[in-house]
Structure formats: structure tokens, C-alpha cells
Design a protein that fits this description.
mainly alpha; 0% strand; 70% helix; 280 residues; 12 helices
């Protein structure tokens, strides 16, 4: 992987991580269309550390309150009912599914799930799911209504994002809308829930950079991560303002159009569904 490639992929990661359009799909598609090697699951996971640092910065005050309340709840009974303490525990609960699924399907995440036909299918299917959720969601619950079952539903939705094309933010936000959460509340919990999962995945994959058939080397990966951080912060600020009034329909249309285009390119043999594989 060269420096220009890292710059482009860092921009793509930052622009698409928080929008419900799947950053992993866009990294995979961008590399395939450009004729580059698949950047690989490790590169994707590590550059997502940059976007999650943007989440930490943007929600620094909220995250600080959650951490303090959660810590006090460990040994002070009167803190255990505090909304921020409950949110801290529910973020832990919601993180469990992706840990289990990530470990069970690690080989598929690195290889089989990166088939562009799967990516195209997920873009379309989960675009339709997002549209339905946006239409039927009652938009009345806030994060104070969050329960353990709801946290697990969010968690399983997040875990599906190990498949490029699903979208972590799209999947979890759809789950929240189906359960009646407001758009902004569903998106906020989606971002907060992603922090431990993405940081854990990125740190776990750090040792794979430059090894096991991965094309990315340390220098370009660091550059892409820094770019993803800066661009990602701007995207969070825009999205949180947009969803208070706007719908997810534009993202749905984009997902379906991109998925359809991808199928056309594959079935006309313009694009190999396994273009630029990084291993077997």
C-alpha cells in the first residue's frame, strides 16, 4: 500500500464510518475499483481507531460522565440507579455479541465476508431495513428507557457489521428505531456502543499490519488513521445535526443504487467479486 492509497482510503473511512452506508464496504469497493489490493480487515479495523477517537472527542463530556458514574456504581449502591451508570453497564452488555461473533467468525471476516457479491447484497438488504425502520419508528424513547434486552438487540445489530455492507451505524440505528428510540438517541447510543468494540478490534488487529498477507504497512496505516480521525469528527458533527430533522431516505437510495451498480459491474465481468484478495 502506497501513501496516496492510504490518503484516499483514510478519507473514505472518515467520510463513511458514521453514515449508515458501511465504511468497510466503501474501503473494499474503492480498492477494487482503483485496481488496488484489498486493504484487508486489519487495515479497516486499525483505521477505525481514528474514527472512534473522533467519537471520544465529540462525546467527551458524555463519556466522562458515564465513566465516572459507572466507576462509582462499582462500590456505591446509591450510584447504581444513576442513568449514566446504567448506560455504562448497558454499553458493556451491548458489546458482548460482537466479541463472541468476532472470535467465532474471525476467518470469515478476514476472507469469505469480503466477497463483493456479499457486500452488494448487504448494501441493498440493510438499506431496505433502514428505510422500513425509519418509516415505522415511533421516535419517542430516549436513552433513559434503555434496558438489558434492548442493549443486547443493539449489540447483535452491531455484530452484523463484521460483514461489509451492513454498516455499524446503520444496523444499530435501525434496531433503535424499530424499538421506538428517537433518531438522535439511537445514533448517540450507536456511537457510544461502538467505542469499546472498535477500539478492541483495532488493538487486536494491530499485530496483523504488514503480516499474514495484509498489504498495509505501518506508515500508510498511521496516515490513514489520522485522516480518518479528522474527517470523521466533522462527519459526526454534521450527522448529529442532520438527523434531528432529516430522514435516512437519502442514505437508503444511495445504498441501493451502489449495491445495484456493484452487481452490474460484477455480472458484466467489469469487476471481479474477489478483486484484490489478501489471502485464501
Amino acid at each position: 500500500m502506497g501513501w496516496f492509497e492510504a490518503l484516499v482510503l483514510g478519507l473514505v473511512q472518515g467520510l463513511t464510518e458514521f453514515l449508515p452506508i458501511s465504511s468497510s464496504a466503501h474501503l473494499r469497493i474503492t480498492a477494487a475499483l482503483a485496481g488496488w489490493d484489498d486493504p484487508g480487515a486489519a487495515f479497516t479495523a486499525v483505521t477505525q481507531i481514528g474514527t472512534e477517537l473522533a467519537v471520544i472527542l465529540y462525546f467527551a463530556k458524555k463519556i466522562g460522565h458515564v465513566l465516572v458514574a459507572w466507576f462509582f456504581s462499582l462500590y456505591k449502591k446509591d450510584w447504581r440507579g444513576h442513568p449514566d451508570a446504567r448506560l455504562g453497564w448497558l454499553i458493556i452488555v451491548g458489546s458482548l455479541p460482537i466479541v463472541v461473533i468476532g472470535l467465532l467468525f474471525q476467518h470469515d471476516i478476514d476472507h469469505a465476508f469480503r466477497d463483493l457479491r456479499i457486500t452488494a447484497t448487504m448494501l441493498i438488504v440493510f438499506g431496505v431495513i433502514l428505510l422500513i425502520a425509519d418509516r415505522v419508528g415511533r421516535n419517542y424513547r430516549d436513552l433513559d428507557h434503555l434496558t438489558v434486552p434492548h442493549g443486547l438487540v443493539y449489540g447483535f445489530a452491531q455484530a452484523l457489521a463484521v460483514i461489509p455492507g451492513v454498516s455499524r451505524s446503520g444496523g444499530t440505528t435501525s434496531a433503535g428505531l424499530f424499538m421506538g428510540y428517537k433518531r438522535s438517541e439511537a445514533a448517540e447510543y450507536s456511537f457510544l456502543l461502538a467505542v469499546p468494540a472498535v477500539l478492541g478490534s483495532g488493538l487486536y488487529k494491530l499485530t496483523d499490519i504488514g503480516k499474514n498477507g495484509e498489504t498495509a504497512q505501518w506508515g500508510p496505516t498511521i496516515l490513514a488513521t489520522l485522516i480518518a480521525f479528522a474527517v470523521g469528527y466533522a462527519v459526526i458533527a454534521w450527522l448529529m445535526a442532520y438527523i434531528k430533522k432529516g430522514s435516512f431516505v437519502p442514505f437508503v437510495v444511495y445504498r441501493i443504487a451502489l449495491g445495484a451498480l456493484l452487481f452490474v459491474l460484477i455480472f458484466t465481468h467489469v469487476l471481479d467479486p474477489n478483486a484484490g484478495p489478501t489471502g485464501t
